[in-house]
Amino acid sequence: MVFNEYGGSTVNSEIIQNLRSDIDELDRELMVLVEKRAQLVLRLSEEKKQLGMTDYDPTREQAIIESLYQEFKPTFSQSEIEVIFKPIFKASLRIQMDKKKPA
């Protein structure tokens, strides 16, 4: 086994670097998906506007969290899913409000 200047294995460092690269790529993919979600939210907002509905629907948000929890509960708690998705919901609402502001 080859060791680097810090006493760590070079092989392990390469594995760690490769895993970090994979994680970085997934992070970028997640942001692409969040961006796609934001575009769908804007389309939904327009449809709701035509029907006289409000943008904010806390019942829907809770249903999303509950559904995701049921699917991913072996890995994530419901509160962890909320911590992940509440900021996305908040950003979605902000995006909708910004879109409605006069230019």
UniProtKB/TrEMBL annotation:
EC code(s) of this entry: 5.4.99.5
Coiled-coil region list: 16-43
A biological process term (GO) from this entry: chorismate metabolic process
Molecular-function annotations in GO: chorismate mutase activity
Enzyme class, broadest EC rank: isomerase
Domain annotation Chorismate mutase: ranges: 10-100
Keyword field contains Magnesium: no
Top-level taxon of origin: Bacteria
InterPro entries per the UniProt record, alphabetical: Chorismate_II_sf (IPR036263), CM_dom_sf (IPR036979), CM_II_prokaryot (IPR002701)
Name listed for the protein in its UniProt record: chorismate mutase
